[in-house]
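Retry 2 of 3 after timeout on previous attempt. Resubmitting structure tokens to design endpoint.
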């Protein structure tokens, strides 16, 4: 278990990074300085974007759980 857990964490970390980078950024440069970049527009996730969003959450939870497991071992 001590040899496979770091490999699992590396794979989860790479998948988490890819999931975050593939998501659409809803905040423009104006939102970084306190402005509202959407001008009242509400974005709804659909299709692949929703699957990617949910998969990113699941991968993040798995990564955190594997980290806690590594601390216990």
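Retry 2 succeeded. Sequence:
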């Amino acid at each position: 278990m001590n040899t496979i857990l770091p490999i699992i964490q590396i794979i989860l970390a790479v998948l988490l990074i890819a999931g975050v980078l593939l998501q659409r950024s809803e905040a423009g440069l104006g939102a970084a300085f306190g402005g509202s970049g959407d001008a009242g527009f509400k974005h709804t996730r659909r299709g692949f974007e929703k699957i990617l969003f949910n998969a990113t959450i699941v991968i993040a939870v798995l990564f955190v759980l594997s980290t806690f497991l590594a601390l216990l071992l």
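Attempt log closed. The mean pLDDT is 84.
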